[in-house]
Design goal:
Layout: H1 3-6, H2 20-30, E1 34-38, E2 44-49, H3 50-56, H4 67-74, H5 95-105, E3 109-114, E4 117-123, H6 124-135, E5 142-149, H7 154-165, E6 169-176, E7 182-189, H8 195-203, E8 207-210
Helix pairs in contact: 7-8
């Protein structure tokens, strides 16, 4: 899946010469946490977050006599506050690469650019929802997890059991097992009752980690 498949194209942006007051108004009105900053040619030149705005704004405990000073803060230009070192994504980047960039840089969004032009924005919430969709958790399904030897062809062998038992798979993930030379395969199966599938897997010699058998 590509970034362009999930990015938000309905952009809300601000100009460098516009004010912190307007930025606060836009983030509140549109319920967004990040505002890309673009120049008059729509070239991305910075980004400002709701946290940046809160940090820059006056405290609610400030004395009312400081209202003139507060007005000065609200009227300051976004170019004085924005982050100019913007980490971006390309529309044709893979979603997992964008997710890694968010995680690695501890940021909440990536403006999506093609050349210098802003095309969209992708946030950590978009990534999380996409992960939920890819894993098939948003539809009725069950979790089945199997520990196998870390050898080629294991997935094909298990798939044959799924096919014979007539169970459909929404998604599959693989990750290292707890033991040397093992890996785990995690399936979201399009069924609520997986007892017949689990029995077929066990009869075929596979080590089913989940669902666990009830303790006797």
């Amino acid at each position: 899946m590509l970034v362009e498949d999930i990015m938000n194209r309905n952009l809300v942006t601000i100009k460098p010469y516009e004010t912190i007051r307007l930025a606060m108004l836009l983030t509140a009105q549109h319920r967004i946490r990040h505002l890309p900053v673009v120049d008059d040619t729509d070239k991305l030149v910075g980004i400002v977050s709701d946290r940046d705005l809160r940090d820059a704004g006056p405290s609610r405990f400030d004395n009312e006599s400081d209202s003139e000073q507060n007005e000065d803060i609200f009227n300051r230009k976004i170019q004085d506050l924005m982050n100019k070192n913007v980490i971006t994504a390309h529309p044709l980047d893979f979603v997992e690469e964008a997710a890694y960039a968010l995680y690695e840089n501890k940021i909440g969004c990536l403006p999506v650019v093609d050349g210098d032009n802003l095309k969209g924005i992708i946030t950590d919430t978009d990534i999380l929802y996409t992960l939920v969709e890819l894993m098939g958790v948003h539809t009725p399904s069950s979790h089945v997890e199997i520990q196998v030897d870390d050898l080629p062809g294991m997935l094909a062998d298990i798939s044959a059991v799924f096919k014979k038992a007539n169970y459909n798979v929404n998604s599959v993930l693989t990750f290292p097992g707890k033991h040397q030379g093992k890996k785990n395969l995690m399936f979201r199966v399009q069924a609520v009752d997986t007892r017949r599938l689990v029995q077929s897997l066990q009869e075929s010699g596979f080590d089913v980690i989940w669902p666990k058998e009830p303790e006797k």
